[in-house]
């Protein structure tokens, strides 16, 4: 089951409506040059280096967002679920990064000295502020786009013909993996459970942060393509 099919099967749910709401954003994400050229193996190495460094910085903060969501979760099962996700953000996905850092000649000193791009800085601060200042349901809705959009993108690229010698195949394999899909589906289901218990005002906030995080996903990839740095 791919991410688009999942949204169809959720018809009538909060997440289905939220996914429909970001359809224009998803169209722009799918057309991003970075993703198109990562898929066919023609992405310039300097762009991928920039992206991986920024993603390493992003994951450090995203793991903290997941830990905050875990602390606000209503039961032990969900606490453990998001603590596990926080651990994976630090270990499993950074293990993927470690391979790419070596492959593309990025040293540990490069990682230590890297500064977040304007888009990355804005995105992680939005997530941290949302997770810290809002309810579990709203915080959960803000972290969902990262799971769901990466699943959608990974599935789409995985289903294209494999390009022999694609230097970015490990990235494609990671986000097209069935285990990643299962994790995304679980967060979608938990978000729908939280939405059913939420007030109308809270549900509106959930939609707002879901849309905003999706916009930041586009901005993050686009900024990497442009090798974005601070202008002054």
UniProtKB/TrEMBL annotation:
Q: Which residues form a coiled coil?
A: none
Q: Does the keyword Phosphoprotein apply?
A: no
This protein's name: Aminopyrimidine aminohydrolase
The gene that this protein is the product of is tenA
| Keyword Zinc attributed | no
InterPro entries, per the entry: Haem_Oase-like_multi-hlx, Thiaminase-2/PQQC, Thiaminase_II, Thiamine_Salvage_TenA
- Reaction(s) this enzyme catalyzes, per UniProt: 4-amino-5-aminomethyl-2-methylpyrimidine + H2O = 4-amino-5-hydroxymethyl-2-methylpyrimidine + NH4(+); thiamine + H2O = 5-(2-hydroxyethyl)-4-methylthiazole + 4-amino-5-hydroxymethyl-2-methylpyrimidine + H(+)
| EC annotation from Swiss-Prot or TrEMBL | 3.5.99.2
Output the Gene3D superfamilies linked to this UniProt entry. Heme oxygenase-like
Question: Would you identify the family this protein belongs to, as annotated?
Answer: Belongs to the TenA family.
Enumerate the UniProt keywords alphabetically: Hydrolase, Thiamine biosynthesis
Give the pathway annotation.
Answer: Cofactor biosynthesis; thiamine diphosphate biosynthesis
| Tree of life domain | Bacteria
